[in-house]
Design goal:
The complex is a heterodimer of chains A (486) and B (325). Chain A is an alpha+beta fold and 486 residues long. Chain A has 2 domains: 134 residues, Beta Barrel (OB fold (Dihydrolipoamide Acetyltransferase, E2P)), CATH 2.40.50; 248 residues, no CATH class. Chain A contains 16 helices and 11 strands. Chain B is elongated. In chain B, α6 links the parallel β7 and β8. Chain B is an alpha/beta fold. In chain B, the strands form 3 sheets. A 6-stranded mixed β-sheet of chain B has the order 6-7-8-3-9-10, sandwiched between helices. The chains are: A alpha+beta (486), B alpha/beta (325). At the A-B interface, α5 and α9 of A face β1, α1 and α2 of B.
Chain lengths: 486, 325
């Protein structure tokens, strides 16, 4: 048993450093998780729910199981933007008891913020407007305090003996301040592992040169292909038109109104995916199949080029065929959107363009998988169109179906606002490269990756964005090697 | 002693038929095939349809991967250093696949990109090869406009571009007109004289006989004979000779009577007008028996002449009579 495992390990000579690196990354990830679990309360809503409210004739007591003076660091998601939670004379009615916030509004609260941390209310002694935003994952060092206040209910004076959690603004931090140490360590480990693994690949430089040669050849051929000329013109007009429309809708009061430049770019990323993914599928639809039929593939396989390099070269070449015109179309789309409307954030615009190329590469490699395994030309086209329809058109129906199966009433009014439905939709979106692209662009409208997308953290979204093309490429090379083995 | 340039040792290859990713059927293509090609040889690879010739060539050139066994070039396993070893091979497939929208120079430049050749060398070699192969005038035309013969010549130029040590040709003359065949034969001889080792598979037996120095016969994925052409002929001659008999009154009954005897087979019967010509193979010791038998059946024998044993006869004998490749 042990010797068999050792043999298996020895057979993986090239990938041993990467496997070790991935194992270490997993260890760091566990330590990362353990760090938060050991140093913070990661489920603040449980603490909040642990309070007891007892009501007497003219007295209300709010107590927590913890002792007054206790201090804990809570980690959670800001459920609402703090700028909407600052107390001032417009937002509160003095003397009123708020059950949700478990306190009585008084003048002392002016200028303070009551944050909603994953359902837990913490009173912050300061104004957090513009300092923290909705969906950000933060840590709050809070103290359990006690005070007494008075309110009137049913014309009766009631004393509130309140225990509550309070924090100072300087004790609130983005979780990413710590997360970045772990993520950076993981990236460094992964980079070292990859470096040593790649350095073990025979003739890596030569193979990369071949991949470049093949990619440039595919690019040249693809650009001259009539279908690309038609599709390229079509998606350029479409993206530019939609860009202008989304800019114009920012000044509109219609139901389709776009709220901001960032909102506009998120919608533009969806429409970009809608047409560009179709082009990516169309150019790569018959690449392997047609070459197999015309025997050009055999001519290529007889050269000193690895099978992995062939798939990589073709994938890069086809990505360039769609990616370069798409990049130009997206820049034009952005330009027309910004001249008609608001300017999105720079980070958001950059990721819109860069992640767009990642999305195109993903769709090309995804289609390569289908093209390699299909038995004939008709199958390749049907599989490709099926994949495009699934990812860009009927995905929502799939989400409805899954939600229905797990017991969400999808016939109810506004069920899309149900947090449970949103959590399902967000998690399923990770399996759709289009939504991953859109959400990743959305992530960079924020200043941190410690963002929660209805249960999907930002880092998981970025991991998904990276894994999609890598997994598709790996499957494509595996399928290609299997098919070419005979 | 000659050095072994190419050596196949117990190479096994099964084709797997898949449905939804699962292997539903396997077909044995190569069954522990062993083969040696020495430096400087023109090695002819013969075998009936489905014998495994193309599969063997595809395994050598890396288009297919063998399941077990080893393929060595100059003593090095071909898969150990695929890049270096593939550089030693030039390959001309039977079905030529070229990009129709490229001209000769572009085509050669594309394939040359997969070898360590600088631009200057590529241009120099391209010009030289196109000249030798008679494609100089058509070098600016798109390959899509080429005839099959021209495509074959261009594919041969691709195969020779990086100066390989061994040139592998799969049915090189298929689809070529007689002039093209003759020209190709001449080019191959010249290349061989310059030291290039050649391995070719062909169904045109006369061509193999004419050009090859050594022959390997494959059947059902196994190499059943590998020798020089002369050696093969000698061996067959020892076991069976070919006779041409000029006779009269040879009928079906006589034919049936003599072919009942083990070791005698009639290759053809020709009507010469007054007489008939029978060409048959038999063992030398059976000659008295056959003449007695024919005479006893009333057949008049006018002449008995020995015939040259062709490679086709060897092929027929070795592969069980099916030469329809």
């Amino acid at each position: 048993m042990i010797s068999r495992r050792l043999n298996q390990w020895n057979n993986l000579k090239t990938w041993q450093p990467l496997i070790v690196a991935i194992s270490l990354v997993m260890v760091v990830a566990i330590l990362h998780k353990a760090h938060w679990e050991l140093t913070t309360e990661t489920n603040p809503v449980e603490t909040w729910k642990g309070k007891t409210i007892t009501k007497g004739d003219n007295e209300t007591n709010i107590n927590f199981p913890e002792n007054v003076g206790d201090s804990f660091t809570f980690k959670g998601i800001l459920m609402t933007s703090p700028k909407f939670e600052v107390y001032n004379n417009d937002s509160i009615v003095l003397g009123e008891y708020s059950k949700d916030e478990a306190l009585v509004y008084d003048e002392d609260l002016y200028g303070k913020t009551i944050i909603n941390l994953s359902g837990m209310r913490i009173l912050v002694n300061g104004d957090l407007s513009g300092k923290f935003f909705e969906s950000e994952v933060i840590t709050v060092k809070a103290y359990l305090i006690e005070n007494t206040s008075y309110y009137t209910e049913n014309e009766q004076n009631i004393t509130l003996n309140r225990e509550g959690w309070e924090a100072m603004p300087e004790d609130i931090h983005l979780a990413s301040d710590t997360d970045y140490y772990f993520f950076t360590s993981e990236l460094i480990i992964l980079a070292i592992g990859s470096y040593y693994s790649f350095s073990r690949i025979q003739n890596l430089r030569t193979q990369l040169r071949f991949a470049k040669h093949l990619a440039l050849f595919e690019f040249g051929r693809g650009l001259k292909a009539p279908r690309m000329i038609v599709l390229g013109s079509f998606f350029t007009i479409f993206i530019v038109g939609i860009g202008w429309l989304l800019g114009d809708l920012q000044n509109s009061a219609s139901v389709f109104a776009v709220t901001s430049g960032n909102d506009g770019i998120l919608r533009l990323s969806y429409f970009s995916f809608f047409v560009v993914s179709l082009a990516a599928i169309a150019v790569s639809v018959d690449t392997i199949h047609k070459e197999r039929q015309s025997n050009t593939l055999n001519m290529l396989l007889a050269r000193p080029i690895n099978r992995e390099t062939i798939v990589l070269g073709k994938a890069i070449g086809l990505t360039m065929v769609v990616g370069i015109p798409a990049f130009i179309a997206q820049v034009l789309g952005l330009y027309f959107m910004t001249i008609a409307g608001e300017m999105p954030t720079i980070g958001c615009m950059i990721t819109f363009l860069i992640f767009g190329q990642v999305m195109i590469f993903t769709m090309v490699t995804f289609q390569l998988c289908l093209a390699i395994s299909a038995k004939n030309g008709a199958d390749v086209v049907i599989y490709g169109l099926g994949a495009w329809l699934l990812f860009s058109v009927v995905w929502t129906l799939l989400v409805y179906a899954v939600s229905f199966v797990i017991g969400i009433d999808v016939s109810a009014q506004n069920f899309e606002n149900d947090p449970e439905y949103q959590a399902i939709a967000s998690r399923l979106a990770l399996f759709n490269p289009g939504f991953v692209y859109q959400m990743a662009v959305g992530l960079f409208t924020h200043r941190t990756i410690s963002i929660d997308f209805e249960g999907v953290p930002g880092w998981l979204l970025l991991l998904s964005l990276v894994l999609w093309p890598l997994i598709c490429l790996r499957i494509a090379t595996w399928l290609f090697k299997r098919e070419m083995r005979g | 002693m000659a050095n072994s340039l190419l050596e196949l040792d117990k190479v096994q290859k099964d084709y797997r038929i898949r449905s939804f990713g699962r292997v539903i059927r396997t077909t044995k293509a190569l069954d522990k095939l062993s083969l040696k090609v020495e430096k400087g040889q023109i090695f002819g690879f013969l075998g009936p349809n489905g014998a495994g010739k193309t599969t063997t060539i595809k395994c050598i050139t890396g288009i297919l991967k063998s399941d077990t066994g080893s393929i060595k070039i100059e003593g090095e396993n071909i898969e150990d250093n695929s890049f270096e070893n593939k550089n030693k091979i030039g390959f001309l497939p039977e079905q030529i696949g070229l990009y129709g929208n490229l001209n000769c120079f572009e085509t050669l430049a594309f394939y040359a990109g997969f070898y360590n050749l600088d631009t200057e060398t590529i241009e120099e070699r391209s010009l030289e090869l196109l000249k030798v192969l008679g494609l100089e005038k058509d070098s600016k035309r798109n390959v899509g406009e080429f005839s099959l013969g021209m495509k074959k010549r261009l594919a041969l130029a691709i195969a020779l571009l990086h100066k390989p040590q061994i040139l592998i040709l799969d049915e090189p003359t298929s689809g070529l007109d007689p002039r093209g065949v003759k020209a190709l034969r001449s080019v191959l001889r010249d290349l061989n004289q310059k030291g290039l080792t050649i391995l070719l598979s062909s169904h045109v037996l006369s061509e193999v006989q004419e050009i090859c120095t050594h022959v390997g016969i494959i059947n059902d994925g196994k190499l059943i004979r590998q020798e020089s052409i002369q050696e093969i002929r000698e061996k067959v001659r020892k076991t069976a000779i070919k006779l041409s008999l000029r006779v009269k009154n040879f009928d079906k009954e006589s034919s049936h009577e003599i072919t009942k005897k083990k070791g005698i087979s009639i290759i053809e019967v020709n009507d010469l007008g007054k007489h008939q010509q029978i060409i048959l193979t038999l063992k030398e010791k059976q000659i008295p028996w056959i003449t007695d038998k024919l005479v006893s059946k009333g057949v008049q024998i006018f002449s008995i002449e020995p015939q040259d044993t062709s490679l086709e006869d060897v092929f027929m004998t070795e592969t069980g009579g099916n030469s329809d490749d």
